[in-house]
Design brief:
Length: about 90
Amino acid sequence: MAEDIATKLQDYRTAPFDARFPNSNQTRNCFYNYMDYYRCQKSLDAKGVDTAPCDWYKRVYKSLCPISWIQKWDEQREAGTFAGKI
């Protein structure tokens, strides 16, 4: 399984189609992948498992989200004021 994930990450170019977000506006897709990344990190860290599978979400949100949004959300997470449930 780890080899599958490593191969997918290596061949990754841009965010693939996600049926949860069929419209051309990808704002929600960006936000949900950002939250999914940190949820995945939190969940796997709690289990003491390698968090490499979470990198998929990170690569997707980094390709979809403007850098300024990511910086703002990171600051909000650190301050404890982020609106999403992670």
